[in-house]
Design brief:
Organism: Acinetobacter boissieri
InterPro entries: HSP15, S4_RNA-bd, S4_RNA-bd_sf
Helix content: 25-40%
Largest sheet: 5 strands, antiparallel
GO molecular function, one term: ribosomal large subunit binding
Pfam families: S4 (PF01479)
Structural class: alpha+beta
Radius of gyration: 23 Å
Shape: elongated
Protein name: Heat shock protein 15
Number of helices: 5
CATH class of the domain at 6-94: Alpha Beta
Number of strands: 7
Strand content: 15-25%
Length: about 140
């Protein structure tokens, strides 16, 4: 288990938007508030409100872009500190890490399947010819 800064231990509860900001999930509290209101933060598969109070041991699911992280709160802090300190405020679950790594590898493989270049005029003619020849087979009377 990670060690949390002693100055953060006296807090028992705080607002979720402030915690997300302090844990560096969002750059500003207003961005955290917008994400919460947009349904990007869940607790036990339920959307949370901006005023929800979080406490140590609470499990949250946070979606940022295509990444979805499941974290357990390990500490609370009123101040936004450096990134190494902010990472002590939560612990990502092993299932969440594995899922994110799997999705990242799938995105990399999807990028490999793309063509190396845009089709030129000759390639486009061949594509149109191919499509027309196959569209005639599938036309219905």
């Amino acid at each position: 288990m990670k060690q949390v800064n002693e100055s953060t231990n006296h807090i028992e509860r705080m607002r979720i938007d402030k915690w997300l900001w302090a844990a560096r999930f969002f750059k500003t509290r207003s961005l955290a508030k917008t994400a919460i209101e947009g349904g990007k933060v869940h607790h036990l598969s339920d959307r949370v409100k901006v005023s929800k109070e979080v406490y140590i041991g609470l499990e949250l699911t946070i979606q940022q872009g295509s990444d979805k992280k499941t974290v357990i709160i390990q500490g609370l802090s009123n101040q936004r500190g450096p990134a190494p300190t902010a990472q002590l405020l939560y612990e990502e679950t092993a299932v969440s890490i594995a899922r994110r790594e799997l999705l990242a590898s799938q995105r990399k493989l999807d990028n490999l399947a793309k063509p190396d270049h845009r089709p030129n005029k000759k390639d486009r003619r061949q594509i149109h010819k191919f499509k027309q020849s196959h569209d005639e087979q599938w036309t219905y009377p």
